């Protein structure tokens, strides 16, 4: 379509093309959610393992890493200190993943637009 401009020249405007729905493809959104949940679980596991390793440093033989009931006050204190020390590294990445998951889930919850019929 050609529209006249104030100077008398014609301005050609391309016809509107259908908007790509790829960015709202539900399978892509589901995959993105699953990938981010997986990465979040990896980060959580990594942080917990690092905190548990710190808790076991200097622990007596009765303290078992796989049984929190055996942990003494000192082990818990070392665990919490490690968590506080690691938080600035892990928490921003974890929050970002949680925000992404939330955003993708909200997009997934949107009603589907009617498919154009040809």
Q: What is this structure's SSE topology?
A:
Elements: E1 2-4, E2 10-12, H1 26-56, H2 73-109
Antiparallel strand pairs: 1-2
Helix pairs in contact: 1-2
Low-confidence stretches: none
N-to-C SSE string, H for helix and E for strand: EEHH
Number of helices: 2
Report the structural category.
Answer: mainly alpha
> Compute the gyration radius: what is it?
27 Å
Number of domains: 1
Strand content: 5-15%
- Average predicted confidence as pLDDT: 82
Number of strands: 2
Question: Judging from the principal axes of the Cα atoms, what is the shape?
Answer: elongated
- For the biggest β-sheet, the strand order reads 1-2
The largest β sheet comes out as: 2 strands, antiparallel
Terminal CA distance reads: 22 Å
Helix content: 55-70%
Q: How would you describe this structure to a colleague?
A:
There is one protein chain. This protein has 118 residues and is mainly α. The chain contains 2 helices and 2 strands; from the N terminus they run E-E-H-H. The protein has one domain. The chain has helices at 26-56, 73-109, and strands at 2-4, 10-12. It has a two-stranded antiparallel ribbon. The longest helix has 37 residues, at 73-109. The mean pLDDT is 82.
């Amino acid at each position: 379509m050609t529209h006249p401009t104030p100077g008398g020249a014609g301005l050609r405007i391309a016809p509107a093309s259908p908007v790509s729905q790829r960015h709202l493809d539900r399978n892509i959104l589901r995959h993105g959610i699953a990938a981010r949940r997986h990465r979040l679980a990896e980060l959580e596991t990594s942080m917990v393992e690092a905190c548990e390793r710190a808790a076991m440093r200097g622990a007596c033989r009765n303290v078992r890493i796989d049984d929190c009931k055996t942990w003494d006050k000192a082990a818990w204190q070392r665990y919490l200190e490690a968590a506080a020390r690691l938080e600035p590294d892990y928490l921003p990445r974890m929050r970002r993943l949680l925000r992404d998951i939330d955003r993708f889930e909200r997009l997934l919850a949107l009603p589907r637009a009617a498919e154009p019929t040809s």
